[in-house]
Amino acid sequence: MPKTPVIGIADTMFARADMGSLAEQTIRREAPQAIIYRVTVPGIKDLPVACKRLLEARKCHIVVALGMPGKMPIDQQCAHEASLGIQWAQLMTNKHVLEVFVHEGEGKNDQDLAEVMRNRTIKHAVNAVKLLTDPGWLRERAGTGQRQGRANARPLKL
Q1: Which pLDDT band holds residue 28 (cuts at 50, 70, 90)?
Q2: Side by side, which strands form the sheet with 35-41?
Q3: Per UniProt, which keywords does this protein have (predicted)?
Q4: Digit-coded pLDDT (tens) for 30-67
């Protein structure tokens, strides 16, 4: 557990809302002592290298990667490719990158889409802080149906 968490935020210009600023505000509220580095790139396929640079050059302990794939099939393919790149960045650095993608087709309308973006961004920003500062917090919630973006699912009894 680092004394002073160093958290990276990588976001995109393609997103229809400023998810990066919301993540930054949330992290500052949850971990005022954290050092935050933020980089904005054009689109989601630029996120993997941005994340890797934050982890290696800026020595971030974790990165929150925020992006918004469009509705078209090519956008979904690009999101998948970006996701694979983010996974590689994690494996190459042995550090977490929390992928926060909100697909444009997820919303019933603009208001609903904005709520999904808000909910998912805040919850993942909190998760990033907790992974670094209080991993037991996440373990306490294991198997409880926690969701980012929509209401939590009901847990099942085993």
Answers
A1: very high
A2: 35-41, 6-12, 62-67, 96-101
A3: Riboflavin biosynthesis, Transferase
A4: 999 999 999 999 999 999 999 999 999 999 999 999 99
Task: Provide the 3-class DSSP secondary structure of residue 87.
Answer: helix
d(CA 44, CA 11): 8
Q: What number is the average pLDDT over the span 122-128?
A: 98
pLDDT at position 151 is: 87
Q: What mean pLDDT value characterizes the chain?
A: 96
Which candidate, 51, 62, 53, places its Cα nearest to that of 86? Answer: 51
Pick the CATH number of 6-140 from 3.40.50.960, 3.40.50.1820, 3.30.70.100, 3.90.1150.10: 3.40.50.960
